[in-house]
């Protein structure tokens, strides 16, 4: 590259300005964590599904921005990344590098710049795929923090009152009560619309649903092949998504999915299915729920298979082309998808309080839908039941489960909860909390 070419390229970068975002920003739960990570790390990598709001959230706190996929400048940026990547890092801090993986060399450039500057809060990197791996890529340990972002929870979208706080329950809250304003019909619509920020802000229900369909088309026809430049069949992608949707909130094995898929595609193999699943995980479309392994008083064998889940339940409804009316006429499917919605929100809330979400099941098929475990070893057990008729049985199951925990090796549960779609939030005489999803927050 000649000096003239370098000057021209640098001129393009120098003229770059922070883009003013005029539309109203809906605060996200991860805002606080992003500030914390910037205060304690040289750079922050935000990962999560495409269209969940990563760039918009990062824009709010950034003082300069590099959009690597800007069609007017993307080729110039790629060329400069090959020649002098440090120039792409110049700008007011924190500097946002959006879709940085377009030029993977930026990872090492950021790591080096952080080392050289010896300062925190320098860069934010956003991307919608798992970062590419290369032999010459440094791990970034100690320089680049990693933060996962998901779609919007009901509290973030303004559809949960947030009266019942997960953290307050862990801290022993008492005398909490609230009335859930979400009807079953509204929950059915929320399931199909999902927590995608643009869809949440769309007042026209038909348009909001089409946006989710468009997202899924993009995954099937573009993203899944573009991520690693391996051609994959869009029809197979949709078939797999539909199969997982039919088995959402279950421990369906690859063999189970393959059997379902082979009815229409006899050439499929388990290797191909696993390849598609792993790629969809890299795109943050699929996010299975891992199993929890507690210390028990009995010698029960614990099943370690993860439960099938999507990042957002609307992916399942879009794959099935199910609208709210179809869900209301199929309460069995509605129930599984309601569980998936609750798992999404629990993950968002738990992540903000330094916790993780799991499920439990043993060889006797005793199970608990969700276990939240904090890093300080406190934990809680949660059953998810959409209707009131199942609450008492679910509460009894939680109590029996908690009695089987070996409290000499681990603490007793901080609380037990039945998470529902019912009307009221309250604490039962047994101590078990009944909390509608429309009343919960972090």
Structure explained in plain terms:
By secondary structure, the chain is of the alpha/beta class. The protein has two domains: 3-148, Rossmann fold, CATH 3.40.50; 164-441, no CATH class. Helix content is 40%, strand content 15%. The chain has 16 helices and 14 strands. It has helices spanning 3-14, 30-40, 54-61, 74-83, 105-117, 166-170, 184-193, 197-200, 205-226, 234-246, 254-262, 270-282, 313-320, 324-328, 331-352, 391-403; strands at 43-47, 64-67, 95-98, 123-127, 144-148, 164-165, 178-179, 355-361, 367-374, 379-385, 415-420, 424-427, 433-436, 440-441. The protein has a seven-stranded mixed β-sheet, with helices on both faces. A five-stranded parallel β-sheet has the order 2-3-4-1-5, with helices on both faces. A two-stranded parallel ribbon has the order 6-14. Helix 7 (184-193) crosses helix 13, helix 9 (205-226) packs across helix 10 and helix 9 packs across helix 13 (313-320). The longest helix is centred in the middle third of the chain and has 22 residues, at 205-226. The radius of gyration is 23 Å and the shape is globular. Residues 14-22 have low confidence and may be disordered.
Q: What descriptors fit this protein?
A:
40% helix; 14 strands; seven-stranded mixed β-sheet; 442 residues; globular; five-stranded parallel β-sheet; alpha/beta; Rossmann fold; 2 domains
Tally of DSSP β-strands: 14
Q: What oligomerization state is this entry in?
A: single chain
Can you count the helices?
Answer: 16
Cα end-to-end separation: 52 Å
| Principal-axis shape | globular
* Helix percent band: 40-55%
Number of domains: 2
Beta percentage is 5-15%
Radius of gyration: 23 Å
Order of SSEs = HHEHEHEHEEEHEHHHHHHHHHEEEHEEEE
Describe the strand arrangement of the main beta sheet, using strand numbers: 7-12-13-11-10-9-8
Helix/strand class = alpha/beta
Largest sheet: 7 strands, mixed
Mean residue pLDDT: 91
- Ranges with pLDDT <50 over ≥5 residues? 14-22
